Amino acid sequence: MITASRVQRSLACGALLLPLLAATQAQAGEVYVPLGMPGIGVGYAHPINDMLGVRADFMTLGSRSKNTVEDGISYQGRYKLQRTALLLDLFPFSGRFRFTGGAVLSTYKVNLDASGASGSITIGDTTYATSANDGLNVDIKFPDTTPYLGIGWGHQAGSGLRWSFDIGAAIGRAKVTATPRGALASQTGIEADIDKELAELREGVGKVRAIPQLSIGVGYSF
After folding, report:
1. Separation CA 127–CA 72 (nearest Å)
2. Residues 155/164, Cβ–Cβ less than 8 Å
3. Is there a contact between 156 and 53 (Cβ–Cβ < 8 Å)?
4. Residue 53, domain extent
């Protein structure tokens, strides 16, 4: 049942929210294009007041393919780098400088595929006879969602042509996995040899705990 007291409380809450909503709507939103790491993208920034703003942007390098050699094994490498960021900007001095925090929803992954079509493949300390159906697939992947921390300049309240700069990091640790295929997968001792083969890769990429983010941007605030 709707009572008079509930109606009064709802009206009171509405009266308190109206100034904040009005202030938010009064600020001009900014559409911007960032360029840097990880690529090029598009974003939207909306100042709430002189000290606070919210943003969302998407950046990508797309997908790439490249032949590479890791520990003596020739791989066909495929790389995919893109991310969407949901960010909160804090302007402590009501100027251009800001602290930024938020969440990054990303696809940072590398796939390495070694084919056994050459007739043999050396993994760890063992050389295995192979056919075209055999091979080794290695995946290097960062978490899908990671926290973001950084600093920057720009995206403050205002209008007209705008410039911005961001430096920070998405905090997350890469995971390295490997999967043999074909008859290679049933070879005795294959898992131990794979662990030896990937030890250096896991010691390197596997210990990375943050993905650097660095970009400059140009935008327009309406």
Report:
1. 12
2. yes
3. yes
4. 28-221
- The alpha carbon of 158 is separated from its chain's Cα centroid by a whole number of angstroms, namely 29
The pTM of the full predicted model, rounded to 2 decimals, is 0.76
| 11, part of any domain | no
Is there a domain that residue 54 lies in? yes
Residue 128 makes CB contacts below 8 A (sequence gap 6+) with 116, 120, 121, 122, 134, 184, 187, 190
- The span from the CA of 7 to the CA of 81, in Å, is 51
- What backbone torsions phi and psi does residue 51 show, to the nearest 5 degrees? -115, -5
Q: What is the pLDDT of residues 167-195, one digit of tens each?
A: 999 999 888 899 999 999 999 889 999 98
Residue 140 CA to its chain's centroid (Å): 14
Strands 97-115 and 73-90 come out as: antiparallel
Residue 203 inside a domain? The answer is: yes
CATH number at residue 194: 2.40.160
The residue with tokens 């290695």 is 138
Please indicate, yes or no, if residue 160 is contained in any of the structural domains: yes
Residues of the chain with pLDDT under 50: 1-7, 9-24
Return the percent helix, strand and coil in the chain, to nearest 5: 20, 60, 20
CB atoms within 10 A of CB 69: 10
